[in-house]
Amino acid sequence: MKIALVHEFLNQLGGAERVLQNLLEIWPDATLHLLIYDKQKTLGIFEAYKKRLSFLDRLPFAHSHHRWLLPLMPWAVEQFKFEEFDAVISDSSSFAKGVETGGRLHICYCHTPTRFLWTEPQDYLASQPYPGFVKAIAGFILPFIRRWDYKAASHPHFFIANSVNVQNRIRKYYNRDSVVIQPPVDTELFHPHGEKENYFFVASRLEPYKKIELVVRAFNDLGLPLKVAGSGTTSVRLRAIARSNIEFLGRVSDEELRQRYSEALAFIFPAEEDAGIMPLEAQACGTPVIAYRAGGALETVREGVTGEFFDRQTPEALKTVLKDFDPKKYNPQVIRQHALQFDKKIFQQKIKSFVEEKFKKYARG
């Protein structure tokens, strides 16, 4: 079976890229179809794989300001051709599901219905650090792209959701059914490594919607030690407001990430994520998670067993949990055992079986 993989933007390393790496482990000979590809920002991890890039990748500002090309993205994704492939798997947070496969089997692994179109788009735009003229243009074109997105969601023959949370939203926004296969965790890489130390840890892209500022402000008030890993558009602002008890690590390797997860008293997870791999990576390292009570964290964190929740995305709500938090309450072996059910080998087996089963049925007509 000759597989085509479709992924929107390969210009960062996050949860969606972890999923893509797993898909490539299953089908290493697959051809990647990408709107934009940045070797440097992805540390060359995907360099060895076959790739086809859209015309957007050659345009000015494509790598530095790819979101400015938003009006062209629906058209760009529709230009890919799949005549020589047997099946297409789109790994989609926005546009990839809109490919036109010419009748080939199309399975979409959906990370989320397009967030900036369906989750309060005006609030999303307001929170982004874009120039005013970009926000004005985007506000005008979003209704048109939203109509395209709804139609694009009819293209896949089957949807896989990364969580029950996303499954419900696929049904709500796209009126499509899906099966749930939760995202993978490399529990061989992420395992307890070193002794506990006296600090808390947060790791994320430093973007407004990740809500890292509320963590910084909470730790500013409490004076507890915090280490922050990651980079992004809010990095300068966060460093400016942080007090001396907070250390910024910048982008870290997976090996350092494992060390920080393992040493931390708890991993802080303040965003409302669709699924969220990082809380599971932390748990695989035997570390409890303190998460905002929403989204995918509700499916991966067991309250009182592998972590705790706070109920509002405010510094005050997080501080309330931190004041009562007792790390001695948690058993690292129990926490890791919980994470093992999300191991990447289980994910790969489920995805491979699903694709092969649907292909056999589809090929028979």
Structure, explained:
There is one protein chain. With 365 residues, the chain is of the alpha/beta class. The protein has 2 domains: 3-184 and 344-364, Rossmann fold, CATH 3.40.50; 200-340, Rossmann fold (3-Layer(aba) Sandwich), CATH 3.40.50. 38% of the residues lie in helices and 17% in strands. The protein contains 14 helices and 13 strands. The chain has helices at 15-26, 73-78, 115-118, 121-127, 132-152, 164-174, 212-222, 235-241, 254-263, 278-284, 297-300, 315-324, 332-340, 344-364, and strands at residues 3-10, 31-37, 50-53, 87-92, 105-110, 158-161, 179-180, 200-203, 226-229, 246-250, 267-269, 289-292, 307-310. It has a 7-stranded parallel sheet with strand order 3-2-1-4-5-6-7. Strands 8-9-10 form a 3-stranded parallel sheet, with helices on both faces. A 3-stranded parallel sheet has the order 11-12-13. Strand 8, helix 7 (212-222) and strand 9 (226-229) form a beta-alpha-beta unit. Helix 1 crosses helix 14, helix 7 (212-222) crosses helix 12 (315-324) and helix 10 (278-284) crosses helix 13. It is globular. It starts with a strand and ends with a helix. The mean pLDDT is 93.
